[in-house]
Amino acid sequence: MGTTQTAVARMERRGCNPTVSTLRKALRATGSDLELSATPLAPQVDETQIAAHLRMTPAERVRYHEAGYRNVGQLVRAALVRE
């Protein structure tokens, strides 16, 4: 690897954050190589709901959100009564 034992020990420590280049050099010194790839993640939101809302007219969106606001208000009032 062409480095000192101290540098290797530093890289072996917990919390070490070596560069990709450093990792590649260390792996090559052991007879291995480094391969990186990217994999798309699953969406974190329900895109079907977003599409459905985008198809709504502005007036439909307002009514939908007003109904949601009323429902949340009812839930809050019910929770306060239970306390």
Q: In short, what is this structure?
A:
The protein contains 4 helices and no strands. The chain has 83 residues and is mostly helical. The protein is elongated and about 70 Å long.
What is the radius of gyration computed over CA atoms, rounded to a whole number of angstroms? 28 Å
Point out poorly predicted stretches. none
What's the structural domain tally?
A: 2
- Spatial shape: elongated
Structural class assignment: mainly alpha
Q: Helix and strand succession?
A: HHHH
Work out the number of β strands.
0
Distance from first to last alpha carbon: 66 Å
Kindly describe this structure.
This protein has 83 residues and is an all-alpha fold. The chain folds into 2 domains: 1-35, no CATH class; 47-82. The chain has 4 helices and no strands. It has helices at residues 5-12, 20-29, 47-55, 58-82. The N and C termini lie far apart (66 Å). The model has no long low-confidence stretch (mean pLDDT 90).
What attributes does this structure have?
83 residues, mainly alpha, single chain
Mind sketching the topology for me?
Elements (H helix, E strand, L loop, with lengths): L4 H8 L7 H10 L17 H9 L2 H25 L1
